Amino acid sequence: MVSSAAPNTDDVLVLGAGAAGLFCAFTAGQRGRRVRVIEHANKVGKKILMSGGGRCNFTNTGTTHANYLSANPHFCKSALARYKPADFIALVERHGIRYHEKELGQLFCDESSKLIVRMLVDECRDAQVAIETDCAITAVSHRNGRYEVATPRGLYTAASLVVATGGLSIPSMGATGFGYQLARQFGHAVLPTRAGLVPLTLSGKPLDDHADLAGVALPVEAASGHQRFRGALLITHRGLSGPAILQISSYWQPGEPLSLNLLPDLDAADWLAAQQAERPATMLQTVLAEVLPKRYAQRLCERWLPSRPLRQYRPAELKAIAAQLESWPVTASGTEGYRTAEVTLGGVDTDGLDSKTMASRHQPGLYFIGEVVDVTGWLGGYNFQWAWASGHAAGLAVSGS
Ligand SMILES: Cc1cc2nc3c(=O)[nH]c(=O)nc-3n(C[C@H](O)[C@H](O)[C@H](O)COP(=O)(O)OP(=O)(O)OC[C@H]3O[C@@H](n4cnc5c(N)ncnc54)[C@H](O)[C@@H]3O)c2cc1C
After folding, report:
1. Does the global pTM surpass 0.85?
2. Which of 123, 192, 197, 373 is the most exposed place for a label (fewest CB within 10 A)?
3. CA gap 308, 3 in Å, rounded
4. Which atom of ligand 1 is nearest to the CA of 38?
5. Which residue minimizes the CA distance to atom 22 of ligand 1?
6. What are the tens digits of pLDDT across the range 261-306?
């Protein structure tokens, strides 16, 4: 998509044609701003296309500020309050995109993520937004009240510059640290970044204990510090994944304790005592295999919980086993990193931004939106809702002079 408009007549330049950039661009365009989006990849919205397993979990109806990690947990409130999940759902419905709720307020397209990208591009077209793809940015500067963006296609200038270049996750999809570089260039602090919503890796004995169980899945509650998430755990060839692990990965740091409740739907002590009373001759492994995947129960009993007929356990022993099952320690060695992470934690410090408009407090006409900002959502549609809401906030604020 290459526009025919003359490069120097723009009011607003948006860097990055992802979720936040496209949303901001058409919001500003609808207000009569002349907007140009500059994207270095060969097509727009690549992460949207791969999101939600190809069906884009585009929002979560239960979104609140409590679903986000940020050094300032209050920062995201204003933008989220002014553009709600219901607003995005209304947009999706206007475009005739069918969707369904999977669980816990997570809304997915019935057909394909492509429809969300098409909707954003159609909105941009209707708002006369110019989109340049395959356009590398070589330098950005601010001179005489205008931003200058140098590219091999020439110099683009505008009064407002919106940085929507996302985080570092999935470099193969076009992710770069360019937004952080620009933030520092214009005097913003950037908080340390790390991979979030990412599988955990095991090494040494913990890996040996699990690797041949790759593919086994079970419901757990994963806990780190005061945070806990219920959901599926999936054992992989490298370690642990699945929604519960991805969620807790955003709160866990290497070296910190991490534990799993392997029986999240039971009171383990009561349940084991009842099993002992009802069928004292049954082996521990047999009863565990009724509430856990068989191979996993077998592994637990082979390596850590020697299996005997239930009548042979003293009450204190059964209680100790129950406590172990409810707080099973995990020694993860690290994460799979940005290669597979869904998001990047940290980023542009919100202290330097206005929470209502996403405008820089240091540099007039400069805005940061989406994942490049130190606001990171849980798994479940919250990250797109932040992209839409922060894009909307900046789109309503950007000016042409
Ligand atoms: C596999 C996967 C699945 C996901 N699924 C979901 C989901 O179902 N629901 C959900 O809420 N979130 C999901 N996410 C997270 C979500 O995709 C992101 O949080 C969201 O896309 C962030 O929007 P953004 O516009 O800030 O950044 P992005 O969408 O990453 O867009 C940034 C854009 O900037 C461009 N760019 C980068 N550097 C430059 C540069 N130097 N010059 C020009 N352009 C540049 C990039 O190519 C990209 O197009 C998923 C993420 C991944 C990786």
Report:
1. yes
2. 192
3. 74
4. 43
5. 371
6. 999 999 999 999 999 999 999 999 999 999 999 999 999 999 999 9
